[in-house]
Amino acid sequence: MRGRTLRLLLEIALLSLLLTALWLAGGQDAYEAFFAGTARPLLDALGVHALPDSPARRRFVNLVPFLVLMLATPGLPWRRRLGGILLGLPLLFLCHVGLVAVEALSHTARRPTGDAFSTLLPAALFADALPFVLWALFAADVLVGIVRARGPR
């Protein structure tokens, strides 16, 4: 059992390093360009008419842990992996749109509180947690099986 656990952790670490390197080597720029063009109509509809460089856009990297978890989860059928990725990526994109909108609007007169941080923090925490929540939903039965197999100690 320890050997399998160590192997899984090593696979996750290597896949994380690979996908992070790809993200930093051009994936981030490609996604930013895609986001700038594709999110424009949605952001305009939400009242955000400029796309400044912002801390919210640094959270776009949450695509990496989602992909790592979807690809590395043992026992997850490939059809579900692919379906989860194809459904999860657009959901993460919509989350990114929402996060950028919340950040932009939290610095305007229309914000619900006088403190932009109190508006942005819950949205940022949601964006950080969403990849893990989506993974847990897509892999729920596999995760339950893993927990049951380990049993009480």
Summarize the structure.
The chain is 78% helix and 0% strand. It is mainly α and 153 residues long.
List the helices and strands and how they pair.
Blueprint: H1 2-38, H2 40-45, H3 55-58, H4 63-72, H5 78-105, H6 116-138, H7 140-150
Note the main attributes of this structure.
0% strand; 7 helices; mainly alpha; single chain; 153 residues; elongated
Tally of separate domains: 1
Coarse morphology: elongated
Nearest-angstrom radius of gyration?
A: 18 Å
Mean pLDDT rating: 88
Unreliable stretches:
none
* Structural class computed from helices and strand pairing: mainly alpha
Share in β-strands: under 5%
Helix content range of the residues, please? over 70%
Number of helices: 7
Ends: how far apart? 14 Å
N-to-C series of helices and strands: HHHHHHH
Main β sheet profile:
none
Query: How many strands?
Result: 0
Task: Give your account of this protein's structure.
This protein has helices at 2-38, 40-45, 55-58, 63-72, 78-105, 116-138, 140-150. The protein has one domain (2-150). The protein is elongated. It is built from 7 helices and no strands. The mean pLDDT is 88. The protein is mainly α. The longest helix has 37 residues, at 2-38. The two termini are 14 Å apart.
